[in-house]
Amino acid sequence: MKGGNWTLVTEFILLGLSEDPELQYPLFALFFLTYFITVVCNLGIIILIWISPNLHTPMYFLLSNLSFVDLCYSSVITPKMLGIFLLKKTISLPGCVAQFFFFAYMVNAEVFLLMGLSYDRYVAICNPLRYTTIMTKQACTFIVVFISLISLLDPLTGTICILRMSFCSSNELTHFHCDVIPLLKLSCSDTSIIESLITYESSCIALVSIVPIIISYTCIISTIMRIRSSNGRWRTFSTCSSHAASVTLYFGTLALMYIRPNTTNSLDQGRVAAVFYTVVIPMVNPMIYSLRNKDVNDSLRKAMQKIPLRGKTL
């Protein structure tokens, strides 16, 4: 940036979801309740799967990892969002970079875990006799470790891009958390290459994860259609319908934010989409994946029965 007076930005002001003072406390109460439910449900699912021997299967192993990711990346975003509603809007540049890194890492881990779960459902429905030999403990561990490593690529790239940006003059971030797209709008350096890189990288990640999911569900639907009994078809489809709904919602909201970062009103659309994939989806995932599941309900009931009642101990 040449000429003129400018001030180097060392912290940002997060404007949040709304600047209306009358909405701050109602929004705080709403999202505090949402975060509380998210923590209780996801932590409960992790503990329940851990203590229940009948849930020590590949699918529930992956689901426990999904709950852990949901718990972590909701915790990266929501506490700071709650602080914004209480007028604690500032965040330092290092804090902003750190929040982005962990947020982006958890988003990528969620994407690849959804892909892993689609593969698990494909094997269970299309190759049921080979399920135990394919989805072994070693295979599931490899999947989780591989996801943990490959999920680092995108946040590392984004973090390097942010660190190479220059921020001056305005420090008002039109978002409720630090993300690369709104940060691009504040940068006073040339960001055209970075924008192209983000769009390309996000599209590649979406393609690499969505194509296997589409292939898996094509095979799953083909297998279901060959089942003669209508009740059998419905029972089989119900085992993967929740996953299909979650995938559609998750990838749809991510696309609004990352695939077209320069479209009109993209920041407003991004904030709405971000509420879904950072706040709503981590809360509903344990419900649609686990709490509606008969095995989980049976395990929960058995676990509750083991808790001694005070009246019986007197």
Word description of this protein:
Helices cover 75% and strands 3% of the residues. Strands 2-1-3 form a three-stranded mixed sheet. The radius of gyration is 22 Å and the shape is globular. Helix 1 runs antiparallel to helix 2 (58-85) and helix 8 (192-225) packs antiparallel against helix 9. The protein is mainly alpha-helical. The chain is built from twelve helices and three strands, in the order βααβααααβαααααα. Mean pLDDT is 81; it is low at 1-5 and 310-314.
Unreliable stretches? 1-5, 310-314
N/C terminus separation: 76 Å
Residues in helices, as a percent range: over 70%
**What count of helical segments does DSSP give?**
12
Net shape: globular
Mean of the pLDDT scores? 81
Sequence of secondary-structure elements:
EHHEHHHHEHHHHHH
User: Largest sheet, if any?
Assistant: 3 strands, mixed
Secondary structure class reads: mainly alpha
The total strand number stands at 3
Going across the biggest sheet, name each strand in turn.
Answer: 2-1-3
**Radius of gyration, CA atoms, in whole angstroms:** 22 Å
Beta-strand residue percentage:
under 5%
Main features:
single chain; 314 residues; mainly alpha; three-stranded mixed beta sheet; 12 helices; 3% strand; globular; disordered N terminus; disordered C terminus
Question: TL;DR of this structure?
Answer:
The protein has 314 residues and is mainly alpha-helical. It is built from 12 helices and 3 strands. The chain has helices at residues 21-51, 58-85, 93-126, 131-134, 137-150, 153-164, 180-186, 192-225, 230-258, 266-291, 294-306, 310-313, and strands at 11-14, 90-92, 172-173.
